[in-house]
Write a structure and sequence with these properties.
Number of helices of chain A: 9
Largest sheet of chain B: none
Distance between the termini of chain B: 42 Å
Strand content of chain A: 25-35%
Largest sheet of chain A: 6 strands, mixed
Radius of gyration of chain A: 25 Å
CATH architecture of one domain in chain B: Orthogonal Bundle
Order of helices and strands of chain A: EEEHEEEHHHEHEHEEHHEEHEEEEEEEE
Helix content of chain B: over 70%
CATH topology of the largest domain in chain A: Rossmann fold
Largest interface: A-B, 24 and 18 residues
Distance between the termini of chain A: 34 Å
Helix content of chain A: 25-40%
Structural class of chain B: mainly alpha
CATH class of the largest domain in chain A: Alpha Beta
Oligomer: heterodimer
Number of helices of chain B: 12
Structural class of chain A: alpha+beta
Order of helices and strands of chain B: HHHHHHHHHHHH
Radius of gyration of chain B: 28 Å
Number of domains of chain A: 2
Number of strands of chain B: 0
CATH class of one domain in chain B: Mainly Alpha
CATH superfamily of one domain in chain B: MetI-like
Strand order of the largest sheet of chain A: 6-7-8-3-9-10
CATH superfamily of the largest domain in chain A: P-loop containing nucleotide triphosphate hydrolases
Strand content of chain B: under 5%
CATH architecture of the largest domain in chain A: 3-Layer(aba) Sandwich
């Protein structure tokens, strides 16, 4: 149980900067997901926490202790590799015992601790099995058990579910979250899969191009994205983001969306925020899930370009000129491509971003 | 489901199975026909010489007898060659000397090759150049290597010069004329020439060790030596056995470099089993006896190697 603090962390590989000044605090016992597309710097960050790579600048602190120069074997880091890195030439028991045996603990203690953790992870009947042919969920448990037995300060998990087929991933996610609750360990989980991050993490750190974009609980990140990248990256499909400019109307402040016409009047809270910021050119954002079909003239009429029926829901692609909108309706929504529908956007779900900086405009 | 299996359907299944069995039979015949030429070839290059050797070894035949080898049965002497062999002191001491050379050279080549391979796992300046240089000894024709070491170990040669320079004394060891130093010189030549092969095979083995398992061990707190002993060596077990088997077989047959350096001398001080066989063949011309020696060696080596391979397979199952 250790808190981790990253201070001004920078990593350069030659001329390429993989990570640009990262500051992040991971609390004691927290499940933190580092989420981002490939090449965003999340694995580099994790490798530096583990000590496999050393930072170009900045510090990593475990409970206020500077880890710079501390060898990776002495940091007390449990690492679960993408492919689990189980010692395939040993059986389950010897894999679990490894960390204790290299510490030269008496064999009687090794044995009792292996038995205890095997019981805990339901691996007892498999102890004598060779580890080369175990199924993937057993491998995950074994990898966690092998790290957990030496009682590491923190756990790092590097995309452990990326080799698992989709159907099984849900099972593994549940199991992993369950294990984390039982161990009450600080865990850092690297993934590019937002579903994994959203379902398991206490907080998510969204990264892109070596820059930390936003840190927050899954709902915070989903509801109030800090900038355009997070807005587009989180959610499936991502937030609708339409370029526009602010305009006054007799009903209040609206956003002129060009060929799509004018938006509904903005919420009073948003109006005061946008007036404070002084932005004129904005990006008008709203979740596809917060769009409904409108029967009245209030709605925004848009031609339907494409309809995806994905079972539980229907994703409708709408478009006018350059502007593209996705809307998520019920599975039986009576929408056909080629037709025109009138949509209404839930006013409270509207988010505005500065068109120049891409940063969210929010009331303070 | 069983209610659906009408007699008619069952007979159809039987017919299908029958067809399968027949086509499998046909496939086997075709396979035999296709591999027959290769099998005949193997028969001629492996089995036939072996039988011929066995046959000659049971006779007193020599090419000087004026009869073809197939008529050797006229000189039949049963197991006399083998009983002679058991009492042949020169044979046993040659065998012992060969074993000694093997027991010194192969472990030395293994340890040197492994050490170098471990060094080459890290990056250092000029790695590529050193890599190429490392492999040169292996490519030198053994006879040439023999002449090279013959000259190096002359009493006025470079080896003594270097030793003189290092010790500050005037060293003039007659390396190849002294029974002990001659054997040492021969071993050094073999180690020089064949360490690169060990290096190459073991480097391939080291590269094949899964890096993340080594990293996992590091993160669990294992020291370099612990990682090497518990992860790297077990993963390399198969390749180590192959490398050792190759060198044991080859070293047992050590001949060309050694023969050029010492001719098996002084006296019989460096006479290994190959040199002994060569001398009996060329000088004494008793080929029946030679065949017997060669057959004994072949059987001994085969047992040794199959033991190694069975250990390897045992390791795979564990």
């Amino acid at each position: 149980m250790t808190a981790i603090r990253l201070e001004n962390l920078v990593k350069r590989f030659g001329a390429f900067t993989a990570l640009k000044t990262m500051d992040l605090e991971i609390r004691n016992g927290e499940f933190m997901a580092l989420l981002g597309p490939s090449g965003c710097g999340k694995s580099t960050t994790m490798n530096m926490i583990a000590g496999m790579e050393s930072p170009s600048e900045g510090r990593i602190l475990f409970d206020d202790k500077d880890m710079n120069g501390v060898a990776m074997g002495r940091r007390g880091v449990g690492f679960v590799f993408q492919n689990y890195a189980i010692f395939t030439h040993m059986n389950v028991h010897d894999n679990l015992a490894y960390g204790l045996r290299v510490r030269k603990l008496p064999e009687s203690e090794v044995d009792s601790r292996v038995k205890a953790i095997a019981e805990f992870l339901q691996l007892t009947p498999l102890l004598k099995q060779p580890s080369a042919k175990l199924s993937v969920n057993i491998l995950q448990r074994l990898a966690i058990g092998r790290s957990a037995i030496v009682e590491p300060a923190i756990f790092l998990l590097d995309e452990p579910l990326s080799n698992v087929d989709a159907a099984f991933r849900a099972v593994m996610r549940t199991e992993l979250k369950h294990l984390q609750r039982q161990f009450r360990q600080t865990m850092v989980y690297v993934t590019h899969d937002q579903l994994e991050a959203m379902t398991m993490a206490d907080r998510i750190a969204v990264m892109d191009h070596g820059v930390l974009q936003q840190v927050g609980t899954p709902l915070e990140v989903y509801n109030n994205p800090a900038n355009l990248f997070v807005a587009g990256f989180i959610g499936s499909p991502g937030m609708n983001l339409l370029k526009g400019s602010l305009a006054d109307s007799d009903r209040g402040l609206v956003v002129n969306l060009g060929e799509m016409g004018r938006s509904q009047p903005l919420d009073p809270e948003l109006v005061s925020a946008v007036r404070q910021s002084g932005s004129r050119e904005v990006v008008y954002g709203f979740r596809p899930e917060r769009v409904s079909l409108s029967g009245t003239a209030e709605g925004m009429p848009l031609p339907v370009t494409f309809v995806e029926r994905i079972g539980a829901r229907t994703v409708v692609h709408l478009g006018a000129g350059e502007q593209r909108v996705k809307a998520v309706f019920d599975n039986d929504a009576a929408v056909e491509s080629g037709s025109t529908v009138s949509i209404a956007i839930e006013p409270a779900s509207v988010r505005l971003f500065d068109a120049g900086t891409g940063i969210a405009i929010r009331g303070t | 489901m069983s209610s659906l299996a009408t007699p008619e359907k069952i007979s159809m299944v039987d017919a299908a199975l029958d067809h399968d069995a027949r086509s499998e039979d046909g496939g086997r015949r075709l396979g035999l026909a296709l591999t027959l030429p290769a099998q005949v070839l193997v028969l001629f290059i492996a089995v036939f010489p072996l039988l011929m050797q066995l046959y000659i070894s049971l006779t007193d035949w020599s090419p000087l007898d004026g009869i073809g080898w197939w008529q050797a049965h006229e000189l039949w002497n049963g197991f006399a060659n083998y009983t002679d062999l058991m009492a042949d002191g020169r044979f046993w001491s040659a065998l012992g000397r060969t074993a000694l050379v093997m027991l010194v050279c192969v472990p030395a080549e293994f340890l040197l090759g492994l050490g170098l391979a471990i060094l080459f796992m890290d990056d250092f300046a000029g790695k590529r150049v050193f890599y190429s240089i490392m492999l040169i000894p292996m490519m030198v024709v053994p006879a040439v290597a023999g002449y090279m070491f013959f000259m190096l170990f002359q009493s006025g040669g470079p080896v003594n010069d270097i030793l003189s320079g290092l010790t500050g004394m005037n060293v003039s060891i007659a390396w190849l004329s002294d029974p002990t130093t001659a054997l040492v010189a021969v071993m050094i030549a073999d180690i020089w020439q064949w360490t690169p092969l060990m290096f190459l095979i073991l480097l391939a083995g080291l590269v094949g060790v899964p890096e993340d398992q080594v990293r996992a061990a590091t993160l669990l707190g294992a020291s370099w030596w612990q990682r090497f002993r518990t992860i790297v060596l077990p993963k390399m077990k198969t390749i180590i056995i192959i490398a050792l088997a190759i060198r044991v077989i080859e070293n047992f047959k050590i001949f060309d470099t050694l023969y050029i350096m010492t001719g098996g001398g002084p006296g019989v001080a460096t006479e290994t089993i190959s040199v002994y066989i060569y001398k009996v063949t060329q000088q004494d011309l008793i080929w029946g006896y030679v065949a017997a020696i060669a057959l004994v060696i072949l059987v001994a080596l085969s047992i040794l190697v199959s033991l190694a391979i069975s250990r390897m397979n045992a390791g795979k199952e564990a």
